[in-house]
Design goal:
The chain has 24 helices and four strands. The protein is 72% helix and 1% strand. The radius of gyration is 23 Å and the shape is globular. The strands form two sheets. Strands 1-2 form a two-stranded antiparallel ribbon. Strands 3-4 form a two-stranded antiparallel sheet. It has 558 residues and is mainly α. Strand 3 and strand 4 form a beta hairpin. Helix 8 packs antiparallel against helix 18 and helix 14 packs parallel to helix 24. The mean pLDDT is 86. The longest helix has 37 residues.
């Protein structure tokens, strides 16, 4: 395995200087043209182009847990794990058509602001505090720790210096505001895609070499033959990974809840489009959807290639850690096989993914804290400059907290991708139900929204521990449970989310109807009408292309 050479360091420094220099140039130009109004700082109001919005969405989404975790799942499960990326493409189109018009027409800038306008301050404050905790303790820490772990394993630098470098680099970009984040994300995505494709090309070329061939196409053909089972897109019930991806539920059930909540009800994601006009926001989301179609090639295919190489013995014991197989080593092992120079490109891609995600998450933390907590609770008369200053302080504080607590959470032992899904999945059904009912059913009351918050969490916890309290084998014949190696019938994670979502919807309808009959809990309305959901012909064409591409992928690899 090659070491990190001088050429690799030079390549990485070029990336670092390019991103930093471009960010400083954007910041100075912004200062000269628009001042430091809070909406400009937090949302880059009206200044992000559609391609900057789309690139920023992807840069914020793809991080170490995708590169490391998704490649590890590619090694263990196969291309079926790509449903997270492919379903996201379809979800982005839905969010562009149905969610963005509601947010922009009602001048929504933060998710708690939407909840306050629709349900009242109690619901908004509760969820604002919840999101701040989730973003700092779960998301920011996992992105920082896993990113530092990956970079440390590649460069040989100790973990703590890597964490500090990533935190400081991301904080500097974040302090420049959303416009700096948005436009530097374009550079980050270019590095991410180029570096990711280089790694995939090398991995496929190594597979081709197993049959004395050369080139990525020959490698893909060889890989398809050697690991045909790893290209099944929908897992059968007898598959050992069924609990992770339970058959048709990935297309018809809980996966929609994961994606709609993430892409449509998440400050971290929607913030990129909330400062734009509707046509620009929709184009940005559509562009992000097209980029999502490329992600399985970058983050899943290398894992499958590592599986084929390992099965052939080409990787030796590189995939073993302490004598045990660790699928999450797939991507780092491939990176270490890169020749001098190309390793620097891949290193820059991984750093770009981590820094962009950290910057986006920190900006969302600053936005929610400043606009929804500080300005509405502690200082309602705060000036624009004061709010920008508070936002910058909250960026520094949140980064410092992440550096301090990340090593204490045992994230690497749980697996980064699973760590994030485990903790956000308990609340996703309730949050999505609260938003959808708030959008499309005017009679939904504040009491119903509070039930979604508390009832959704309680329902998720109950279903998690229910197999230990009663026999659920009656669910096995209909596919909503599988008997584990321990002999216990458990409900797959995605199916639990699906069940809890509909439980919450039913509870919200019942509570709202009871409040209506008693003339209690008067519902607040948003401006929503069908004309808001009309799209132009170009957007319709782009959406159709994405739909056809998804149908072709699943049709060919079902």
């Amino acid at each position: 395995m090659s070491t990190f050479s001088t050429v690799d360091l030079i390549v990485f420094l070029i990336y670092f200087i390019a991103v930093a220099g471009y960010g400083i140039w954007i910041y100075r130009r912004k200062q000269a043209s628009s001042g430091q109004a809070s909406h400009d700082y937090f949302l880059a109001e009206g200044s992000l182009t559609w391609w900057a919005i789309g690139a920023s969405l992807i840069a914020s989404n793809i991080s170490a847990e995708q590169f490391i975790g998704m490649s590890g799942s590619g090694y263990k499960i196969g291309m079926a794990i790509a449903v997270y990326e492919l379903m996201a493409a379809a979800t982005l189109v839905i969010v562009a058509v149905f969610f963005m018009p509601v947010y922009l027409k009602n001048r929504i800038y933060t998710m708690p602001q939407f909840l306050e306008q629709r349900y009242g301050k109690a619901v908004a404050t509760t969820m604002a505090l919840f999101w701040l905790g989730l973003y700092v303790v779960v998301n920011l820490t996992s992105i920082l720790y896993l990113g530092a772990l990956a970079i440390s394993s590649l460069s040989g630098i100790a973990l703590l210096p890597c964490m500090l470098f990533l935190a400081v680099f991301a904080a500097i970009i974040t302090l420049g505001g959303m416009k700096v984040i948005g436009y530097t994300d374009v550079v980050q995505v270019a590095c991410l895609v180029i570096g990711g494709l280089v790694t995939t090309w090398l991995a496929l070329d190594l597979v081709a070499a197993l049959a004395s061939k050369h080139g990525a196409l020959a490698g893909f053909s060889e890989l398809f033959g050697r690991a045909r089972g790893h290209f099944d897109m929908v897992l059968k019930r007898e598959d050992p990974n069924y609990m992770d991806l339970p058959g048709l539920s990935v297309l018809l059930g809980g996966m929609w809840i994961v994606n709609l909540n993430y892409w449509g009800c998440n400050q971290y994601i929607t913030q990129r489009a909330l400062g734009a006009d509707l046509p620009t926001a929709r184009k940005g989301l559509l562009f992000a959807a097209f980029l999502k179609l490329l992600m399985p090639v970058i983050v899943v295919l290398p894992g499958i290639a590592a599986y084929a190489l390992d099965q052939s013995g080409a990787l030796g014991d590189a995939m073993r850690q302490g004598g045990e197989l660790n699928p999450d080593r797939a991507y780092p092992v491939l990176l270490n096989l890169l020749p001098s120079g190309l390793k620097g490109v891949a290193f820059a891609a991984l750093t770009a993914a981590v820094v962009a995600s950290l910057a986006g998450k920190a900006n969302s933390i600053a936005t929610i804290f400043t606009l929804d907590i500080y300005n509405k609770t502690f200082n309602k008369a705060a000036t624009e400059q004061k709010m920008v200053w508070i936002g910058r302080v909250s960026v520094v504080v949140s980064m410092a907290l992440a550096v301090l607590i990340a090593p204490l959470l045992g994230i690497d032992k749980k697996g980064g991708f699973q760590y994030i899904q485990e903790y956000t999945g308990f609340v996703s059904p309730g949050i999505l139900a609260m938003f959808l009912m708030g959008f499309f059913w005017k009679k939904t009351t504040q009491g119903a929204a509070m039930f979604a918050t508390i009832g959704g969490l309680a329902g998720s916890i109950l279903l998690k521990f229910l197999p230990g309290m009663m026999d659920l084998s009656f669910l096995v014949p209909i596919g909503f449970a599988k008997v584990t190696e321990a002999g216990v019938a458990e409900i797959p994670f995605l199916d639990r989310m699906f069940i809890v979502f509909w439980f919450v919807i039913a509870g919200m309808v019942l509570i709202s109807k009871l409040a209506e009959s008693r003339r209690e809990g008067v519902a607040r309305h948003l401006h929503v009408d069908t004309s808001m959901f009309r799209v132009d012909s170009a957007f319709t064409l782009g959406s159709a292309v994405i739909g056809i591409a998804l149908a072709a992928i699943y049709g060919a690899l079902w």
